Amino acid sequence: MAGKVMRALQYSGYGGGVAALKHVELPVPSPKKDEVLIKVEAAALNPIDWKIQNGVMRPFQPSKFPHVPVTDTSGEVIEVGSGVTKFKAGDKVVAMLDNFSGGLAEFAVAKEKLTVKRPEQISAAEGAGLIAAGLAAHQALTAGGVSLDGTGKIKNVLVTAASGGVGHYAVQLAKLGGHHVTATCGARNLEFVKNLGADEVLDYKTPEGAALKSPSGKKYDVVINCAEGISWSTYQRNLSEYGKVVNLPASGSTMWTFVVKKVTFSKKKMVMVFLSPNGITLEYLVGLAGEGKLKTTVDSTFPLSKAEDAWGKCIESHATGKIIVEP
User: Fold this and answer.
1) Are 235 and 214 in contact (CB under 8 A)?
2) Are strands 239-247 and 180-185 parallel, antiparallel or unpaired?
3) Helix, strand, coil: what percent of the chain each, to 5?
4) For 26, phi and psi rounded to 5 degrees?
5) In this predicted model, what pLDDT tens digit does every residue of 58-72 receive, in sequence order?
6) Is the dihedral of CA 55, 327, 296, 37 positive or negative?
7) Dihedral of alpha carbons 249, 301, 189, 294, sign
8) Which three-class secondary structure state does DSSP give residue 173?
9) What is Dmax (Cα atoms) for the chain?
10) 123-148 in b/e burial notation, b at 16+ Cβ within 10 A?
């Protein structure tokens, strides 16, 4: 592929939103040691992508400008770098790219350790959608002490924003572990979340939903919080004696609550989770998907030529499941 060019989408500085995205032609990257070159068949957007553009990880990410965003990809291996033993040209894979970059393009390079073979039962879009959101859901549940293999004490789990990317995986994984799951979402997604396996579903705009009150009166052992703007006092009155809130959205208020709960030795805790790339866990999740035990819901699909529209929809934060771009 040396000397060939590819279509890509990039931005050249912080801020600017959709208007700052530019369609460009770039050289096709070459795989280095322990890397594979992938012909991208699908890339999945996550809120962290546009938040990075807004400077949430400044000055660490982007590591340089101009920046081709998006980390979650699925496609076909075209070339392998030196030292690669698990893959060969022609393999269908899903891959989490380094440095939150490179996915909105026709080709991308990925580390062998963060690349997993994609079973034929999973489409490229489903595979791409699973990566960051599935890992975040798994890591949040694990951080909350929720067993995922059916062993251990059954817990009552609450998942907020359960129709979104992370939330819809968290509901499914918690149910695979045999737990009682209460979930919140908007009115239009109540049936969708029930079909994911949730035992109780609350419309977050109703008084009961806003109060996170379980219809059965259960107290939550673990809350997987994928929503913004819920106060600690709302959680606190619904938690069991040693209940935990595992928080995924990072904001000033949640960080402050996390610190306060740490220093006051409260029995009820807030746990912060920051996504950690993990090829072993990704392989586990892809395996579940291949067995039909974990499903990806695709909200919408956009061609690379209209990727800015996908970016705008991701910023709006009203997707049911995942937003996908296909070159």
Assistant:
1) no
2) unpaired
3) 30, 30, 40
4) -130, 160
5) 888 898 999 999 999
6) negative
7) negative
8) helix
9) 64
10) bbbbbbbbbbbbbbbbbbbebbebbb
Q: Residue 252 CB: number of other CB atoms within 10 A?
A: 7
d(CA 291, CA 239): 34
Q: pLDDT digits over 299-321, tens only?
A: 999 999 999 999 999 999 889 99
When pLDDT is averaged across residues 162-178 and rounded to a whole number, the result is 96
**Is pLDDT at 252 greater than 90 in this prediction?**
no
Q: Residue 260: is its pLDDT beyond 60? A: no
Q: Quick one: how far is CA 318 from the chain centroid?
A: 15
**Overall average pLDDT of the 208-228 stretch:** 94
Q: Which two tokens stand for residue 39?
A: 């012909």
Question: What spatial distance separates the first Cα and last Cα of the chain, rounded to whole Å?
Answer: 17
Residue range 82-93, pLDDT digits in tens: 999 999 999 999
**Does position 266 have pLDDT exceeding 80, yes or no?**
no
Q: Which residues sit opposite 246 in a β-bridge?
A: 224, 271
> What does the radius of gyration of the chain's CA atoms come to, in whole angstroms?
20
All residues at 6 or more sequence positions from 9 whose CB lies less than 8 Å from its CB, including other chains = 21, 22, 23, 24, 68, 69, 104, 105, 304, 307, 308
Torsion angles phi and psi, residue 57, rounded to 5: -115, 20
Two structure tokens written together for 21: 């995205």
Omega before 249 within 30 of 0, i.e. cis: no
Instruction: Determine the angle formed by the axes of helices 279-290 and 124-143, rounding to 10 degrees.
Output: 120
CB atoms within 10 A of CB 275: 19
